[in-house]
Specification:
mainly beta; about 10% helix; about 190 residues; 12 strands
Length: about 190
């Protein structure tokens, strides 16, 4: 019994060090899971990609997890559930000019970027609530744009990475590569 009590005490201390307690208006206490402050020591490091496509500055901020021999699609990243599309904070994508994606207007702004993976089709989501930890508070009412994407098979990509590359004089492609999968989100700068 002493061993069980000791294990429970250790687990309680471990759990509580990752949480903080806040008071609510009614006097009740609410437990809030907090994000680690030190981004340099994270297992999935923070990455930033910048590109300029014909005067449109595009920035992608994301946490870059590694495969580490794990089964990713349909396992670590479940199918048919909203995914933060990276690690730690939700991935964000910003545009300094309006763009057209799949014929739909997306205004210049900073968006959180979520996906809903499946085995054959993905949903890519640009969401107006940019500051989120993971997808725990994802709200579909804040979606600015949703499109369907067909993933491609690629050679093994150990570290998840985003790329932004031009595909025409006035447009480009935002690509996500991880494990043996790639998705592409083509865009063009909207007429001014």
């Amino acid at each position: 019994m002493k061993q069980i009590a000791g294990i429970i005490t250790i687990l309680s201390v471990y759990f509580l060090t990752g949480c903080s307690t806040n008071s609510t208006e009614g006097g009740e206490r609410e437990t809030v899971i907090t994000a680690p402050d030190n981004k340099e020591n994270r297992v999935s490091p923070a990455e930033v990609i910048n590109a300029n496509i014909n005067g449109n500055d595009i920035t992608v901020n994301y946490g870059s997890p590694k495969v580490k021999g794990r089964e990713i699609w349909g396992s670590l990243v479940p199918y048919d559930e909203v995914w933060r599309t990276g690690a730690n904070e939700a991935t964000t994508i910003s545009f300094s000019k309006d763009v057209l994606i799949d014929g739909q207007l997306l205004q210049s702004d900073v968006y959180s970027f979520f996906t809903i993976p499946s085995s054959d089709k993905w949903t890519a989501i640009f969401n107006l609530e940019e500051k989120q930890w993971g997808a725990f508070k994802y709200d579909s009412n804040q979606d600015a744009l949703r499109i369907q994407i067909t993933p491609d098979t690629i050679a093994l990509q150990e570290e998840m990475k985003f790329e932004v590359n031009p595909n025409s004089e006035n447009g480009g492609v935002i690509s996500l590569k991880w494990e043996k999968m790639q998705i592409n989100v083509p865009f063009t700068n909207a007429p001014e």
